[in-house]
């Protein structure tokens, strides 16, 4: 077992990043013109990285499978982006953001990386404002903030419920400027299908033109993977249907260790599934938990009456409702972290209190907020003794201003008016904290290959706090990678242009073509989605919100069986020499079928519970934390980084021990 070198700088935590930037190697501006960088993925992490690297003078090739970078899944983020600016004067600071993030991640993240993230967070907001991102503002013109789960301050900057879209447009504008100047060569509708490693260094990629089917070689002095997470291994998730793990998985198979794959986030506020016909799930922003109260009926007879249509949720009085998060976690209430809120919803639904036909839904109710805001606005507008109707009307106007597009989206999907009746929500797969292992410089275990944003594992531990995904993506792309990549590239200025005729490129292209030919020649009887859905069901049932030893062992065997059937009976219509969405899906599902087994293997080996990884065998049995996740810091305070050896079941474990010098390691409590 190798000891992983995270390359964390020496010295006090608050000085590490500044000292590191001051002492790492740089590339002369004139020499940057001699260096090529490939960026795979053009969401917030990839788009900001490509724009920043090109602005600095590097020659950048950017790849995305969408027709435009504007369609990256970052656009779907709703609630906001964190930054420690303390605009609300409620005691926020860089240290408090750092502390909240480490605690929220259940003490399974690297201190140094998280502190750096907190440190650069304020710069991100300034950068985005300069780009014209229309953040919400208060009456006096200052940027507004709201709170998110797992914190006791308001530090989340937002643009209504469209924050991801607005931030992505900001990054896209910066990227477009560099495309116009010729510093970024943009390859839309191209999918990376392999990494090319020459003499131990990442030297390029093999990509497929998704329109023509042409396989092409692309060389560079460094490769950046910013292709997002692997949540679609569950089939049903809040991710875009095209979101996939192929780029990350291909570099894993070329030597990049995959870290903590079992750390997957189940988001508590998603629209419940309506049946087996669905292809994806829809997220309702965590920001709604600022004003929405989560509850189920106290009495089983009320649950049954609601399911049978004999009662409406609005018929139940306050004392007939169980606001279970407020009851169990009085200090944080509805704003507990996502993993805690998700498990609490599952517990209530498993106990039979789910309020829809499938028994998999709880209520998110805005009645109290509408009344509170309505009374406040009536006072502001000088309305004395407002009627109930006036209060509701004024309150709904305030709620619409804050969350209007989210309410509209819910109404269009469910045909229920959330202003008049509570939303129904249920947990769903959302974000992956695990990913490619990287050191402090964001370099993987393959020299010259970097991973940024959700594609890497580095900042969130076992549970991501809400509004931190956008923060990490932009931090990596704008403020971390542009510095750290120069340390490596400073040794490449005399390398010269890298030929794509090298044997390693020929071999990698052949491997890609061979896999495509193999898939096309199976000519089986089952669709790609047939296998993906089967994989997703195994993952959700046995590797989902709660896991146990028997279920995980069964999952590994079942996934292996599905994989064998896939490679003998999948049917891909059409041909490879042109547009073929089924072929694209088949390659991605082939990777998910390997990743899913490693995911279960990682969950099996980690016999503790932490964050989004809940082992039923590791639960607090008594005391004030009874029923909560029980960590094992003696045996599992490390990052589990897996090395590819040819088969997921034989993956080799490497450990990066986590040290906590600035935060006391203790059991989380949100009581």
From TrEMBL:
- Main location class: membrane
Domain Fumarate reductase/succinate dehydrogenase flavoprotein-like C-terminal residues, every copy: 532-670
Domain of life according to the entry: Bacteria
**Which GO cellular component terms, listed alphabetically, does the Swiss-Prot or TrEMBL entry include?**
plasma membrane
| Active-site residue list | 338 (proton acceptor)
> Any idea which GO molecular function terms this record carries?
electron transfer activity; flavin adenine dinucleotide binding; succinate dehydrogenase (quinone) activity
Q: Name one Pfam family in it.
A: Succ_DH_flav_C
All residue ranges annotated as the FAD-dependent oxidoreductase 2 FAD-binding domain in the record: 36-470
Question: Which InterPro entries does this UniProt record tie to the protein?
Answer: FAD-dep_OxRdtase_2_FAD-bd, FAD/NAD-bd_sf, Fum_R/Succ_DH_flav-like_C_sf, Fum_Rdtase/Succ_DH_flav-like_C, SdhA/FrdA/AprA, Succ_DH/Fum_Rdt_flav_su, Succ_DH/fumarate_Rdtase_cat_sf
User: Which Gene3D superfamilies does the entry mention?
Assistant: FAD/NAD(P)-binding domain, Fumarate reductase/succinate dehydrogenase flavoprotein-like, C-terminal domain, Succinate dehydrogenase/fumarate reductase flavoprotein, catalytic domain
Location of this chain's protein in the cell: Cell membrane
Membrane topology field = Peripheral membrane protein
* GO biological process, any: anaerobic respiration
Q: What is this protein called?
A: succinate dehydrogenase
Question: Gene that codes for this?
Answer: frdA
């Amino acid at each position: 077992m190798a000891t992983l070198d995270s390359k964390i700088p020496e010295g006090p935590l608050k000085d590490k990043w500044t000292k590191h930037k001051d002492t790492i190697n740089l590339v002369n501006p004139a020499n940057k013109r001699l260096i090529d960088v490939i960026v795979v993925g053009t969401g917030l992490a990839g788009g900001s990285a490509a724009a920043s690297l090109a602005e600095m003078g590097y020659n950048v090739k950017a790849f995305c499978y969408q027709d435009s970078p504007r369609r990256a899944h970052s656009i779907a983020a709703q609630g906001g982006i964190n930054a420690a600016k303390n605009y609300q004067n409620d005691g926020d600071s860089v240290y408090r953001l750092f502390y909240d993030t480490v605690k929220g991640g259940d003490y399974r993240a690297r201190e140094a990386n998280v502190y750096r993230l907190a440190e650069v967070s304020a710069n991100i907001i300034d950068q985005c404002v300069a780009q014209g991102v229309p953040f919400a503002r208060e009456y006096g013109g200052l940027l507004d903030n709201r709170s998110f789960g797992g914190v006791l301050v308001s530090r989340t900057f937002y643009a209504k419920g469209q924050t991801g879209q607005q931030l992505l447009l900001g990054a896209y504008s910066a990227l477009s400027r560099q495309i116009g100047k010729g510093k970024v060569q943009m390859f839309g509708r191209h999918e990376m299908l392999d990494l090319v490693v020459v003499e131990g260094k990442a030297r390029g990629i093999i990509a497929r033109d998704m329109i023509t089917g042409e396989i092409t070689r692309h060389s560079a002095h460094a490769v950046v993977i910013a292709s997002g997470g692997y949540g679609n291994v569950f089939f049903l998730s809040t991710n875009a249907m095209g979101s996939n793990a192929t780029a990350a998985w291909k570099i894993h198979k070329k030597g990049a260790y995959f870290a903590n794959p079992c750390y997957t986030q189940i988001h508590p506020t998603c629209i419940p599934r309506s049946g087996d016909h669905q292809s994806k799930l829809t997220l309702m922003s965590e920001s709604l938990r600022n004003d929405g109260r989560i509850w189920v009926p106290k009495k089983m007879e009320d649950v049954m009456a609601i399911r049978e249509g004999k009662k409406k949720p609005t018929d139940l009085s306050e004392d007939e409702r169980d606001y279970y998060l407020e009851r169990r976690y009085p200090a944080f209430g509805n704003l507990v972290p996502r993993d805690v809120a998700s498990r609490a919803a599952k517990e209530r639904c498993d106990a039979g209190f789910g309020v829809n036909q499938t028994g998999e839904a709880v209520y998110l109710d805005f009645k109290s907020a509408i009344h509170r805001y309505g009374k406040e606005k009536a006072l502001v507008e000088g309305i004395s003794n407002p009627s109930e109707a006036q209060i509701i009307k004024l309150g709904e106007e305030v709620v619409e201003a804050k969350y209007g597009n989210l309410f509209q989206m819910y109404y269009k999907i469910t045909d229920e008016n959330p202003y008049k009746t509570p939303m129904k929500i249920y947990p769903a797969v959302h974000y992956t904290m695990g990913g490619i292992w990287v050191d402090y410089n964001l370099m993987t275990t393959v020299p010259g290959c970097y991973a940024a944003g959700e594609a890497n594992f580095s900042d969130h531990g076992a549970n991501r706090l809400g509004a931190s995904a956008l923060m990490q993506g932009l931090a990596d792309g704008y403020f971390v990678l542009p510095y750290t990549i120069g340390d490596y590239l400073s040794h490449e200025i005399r390398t010269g242009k890298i030929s794509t005729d090298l044997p390693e490129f020929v071999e990698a292209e052949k491997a890609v073509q061979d896999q495509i030919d193999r898939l096309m020649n199976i000519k089986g009887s089952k669709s790609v989605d047939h296998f993906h859905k089967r994989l997703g069901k195994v993952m959700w049932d046995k590797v989902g919100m709660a896991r146990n030893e028997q279920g995980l062992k069964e999952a590994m065997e079942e996934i292996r069986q599905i994989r064998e059937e896939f490679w003998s009976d999948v049917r891909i219509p059409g041909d490879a020499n042109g547009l073929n969405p089924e072929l694209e899906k088949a390659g991605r599902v082939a990777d998910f079928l390997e990743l899913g087994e490693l995911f279960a293997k990682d969950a099996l080996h980690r016999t503790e519970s932490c964050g989004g990884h809940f082992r039923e065998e590791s639960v607090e049995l008594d005391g004030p934390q009874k029923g909560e996740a029980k960590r094992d810091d003696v045996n599992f305070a490390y990052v589990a980084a897996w090395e590819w050896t040819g088969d997921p079941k034989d993956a080799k474990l490497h450990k990066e021990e986590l040290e906590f010098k600035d935060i006391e390691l203790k059991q989380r409590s949100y009581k």
